[in-house]
TrEMBL record:
UniProt name for this protein: Hydrolase
Signal sequence interval, chain numbering: 1-15
Domain DUF5916: 232-316, 399-657
Keyword terms, alphabetized: Hydrolase, Signal
A molecular function GO annotation: hydrolase activity
Source lineage: Bacteria, Pseudomonadati, Bacteroidota, Cytophagia, Cytophagales
Keyword Signal attached: yes
Gene3D superfamilies (alphabetical): 2.60.40.1190
Amino acid sequence: MRILLLLLFSIPVLSQNTTPYKVNFTTEKIKIDGVLDEPIWEKSATLGDFWQYFPTDTLKAVYKTDVKIAYDDKFVYISAKCYSQSNKFVILSYRRDYRAGGNDNVTFVIDTFNDKTNAFLFGMNPLGVMREALLYNGATDNSFFSEFWDNKWTGESKIYDNYWTTEIAIPFTTLRFKENTPQWLFKSYRFDTQINEQSTLVQIPQNQIIMNLGYAIPIEFEKPLKKSGANISLIPYIAAGNAQDFVNTKNPNNGSRLNFGGDAKIAVTSGLNLDLTINPDFSNVEADRQVINLSRFDINYPEQRQFFLENSDLFSGFGSYVINPFLPPQSNLGGAGNQIISPFFSRQIGIARDSTTGLGVPNRIVYGARLSGKLDDNWRLGLLNAQTADDEFKGISGANYGVLAVQRKIFNRSNIAAIFVNKQTLHPEMSPKLTNFNRVGGLEYNFTSKDSRWTGKAYYHQSFSETKQKDAFANGFSIMYSVLKYTFRWAHDWVGKGYDAEVGFVPRKDYLRINPTLGFSFYPRNKLVNRYSVGVALEQYTMPNIGTTDRIAGPFLSMFFNSSARMLFSVNQNYTYLFSDFDALRSNNKLAPLKRGSEYTYYNASLNYFSDQRKKWWLFAQPLIGQYYDGNIVSLAGSLNYRYQPYIALAMNFTYNHIDLPIGKNNVFLIGPRLDWTFSKKVFLTTYMQYNSQFENMNINTRFQWRFAPVSDFFLVYIDNYNTANGQSRNRSIQAKLTYWFNL
């Protein structure tokens, strides 16, 4: 009882300014050059003082940041004057859409519907490099951040002796908002590498992440915002290229091709947007970084295709997530997603199972339409329909995908959401494994308290198919309480044996998963350590009629250093029962697998470490050492990085696993040097190699990008895959693509 009372009442809520900031209307022309010499900036007041978030959350920022906002009929303007110790800054590169950590920048977050759930993020650094993103689920976790969203806006910065300034203009056509609204919510935060300080416009406790939308101030416009006239954007493309499959020379996709299509974005209302695509081409999307998966189950990768991104949480936010409040931010650089189960995963559209090989391969999308956004202050709506094409050569039938999602806000930051997903196979006779249809319906309750101490969700999903499987359900519940000194999280998921979500992400079925975590945080504020947390975590899977099949449990130590380095160390007890044969040596089935029905208890220790990213050289490392099934493992994954600012960023991504089991030994490794050369804010070259010993494959990927106009690009992409066993090329392609963004 005493501990419960401490959890509930030990930490006071930090005060927030609820007096609206008055945003002045202007008729003068503002030149976006980073020089704040327009009269409107003299007239406008600053939004307020910034507070430290790191190294402490109780003091005012050492150096001031003066943020001001103005607007006219077409744009909202934001300026910032960022005082500093000198004019020497850390700039990662000219690459757009950088993450905030480890470099100098200022960020502006706009919650246009005042719901503290979804927001637009815009950021600038001292060289005027831009970034934008979408925040969702209240931005209560680092995973609720989509940096792949791209849209039209302008910005510029200028460096002076002891400060730098930035100025941006965001078209109202880029934003979604309620017509005639007088008020938005706004927040801003800044990273100052010279004194290693992170500061925020609103005081935020360190147990909450800096993006959290629960900490914002109201901004009030001089007169209510009107709809900015016709808001239609056309984004046509033309692409040409040549592809060769040297393994299967009869592949009809071999040879030269000319392709064209495009997207359209139409504002149906000021809060509701219609996205259309015809014959989309995703050749310019950066390839996923490969990972060596030591588990028995599939992993997922983030969605990067522009058509699926805006309001993506309305469709893909259902289901269960892995959330570890003690894991260092940005620790998922390997690319794997953190979703455990989802009834809808947009990357399933455009990917199909090749009936001749059993592998997942690209499947052309003929068209797509998405209607998504806000209906009013409380309701959000998402409708999606997409059609894929037949591929007789690979035995792939075209399919129609339909999704309906509805979300209703309740209380201050919570909502009830429902989803229905339908996949209709057009020609199931093309493969004996195809079904006529697959459908999933789901209902969820997502909860976030006003002060962000409590977060949680409850969900129930049911799948439907012509085979009428029993136990075709999935349900779960999670709750987390987090204050400065204590964090507790409980989560469980129960997935039935017959649950089948073909358009979702369901790596395993027929289990009950529990995942409690308890941690205590301390703030020594000495020269070395800023904060450390100790605790214990458990993740366990149980199957009916079998019992426990998987368990990982043990204590952990999380540390945040004053240098901004951070780490998570854990000692783990593992238990695994194999309900099917498993290639534990990751030999690609060349060596004997561990047999079904075997069970193992083993112990190991792992570390997740980020060095100081402000340095020219920095390291991300994930070592693992100890027992592995009935043998031993030594594993090291991570990335060694070098920066020659602002032009060159070099990274050596690596994974090495030495697995020693009684049935044999194997060394599995993946190495991938990467060069990101940014010639300017408009011209970029990225090239990398990925050698995967498990599949004896060398992948070479080079992408040249010229942004010749806002959100308008020319791409040239070269891809080659080699069989390292014989030195022969498996497949090769070169693609050129031109896109242009028209505003009508």
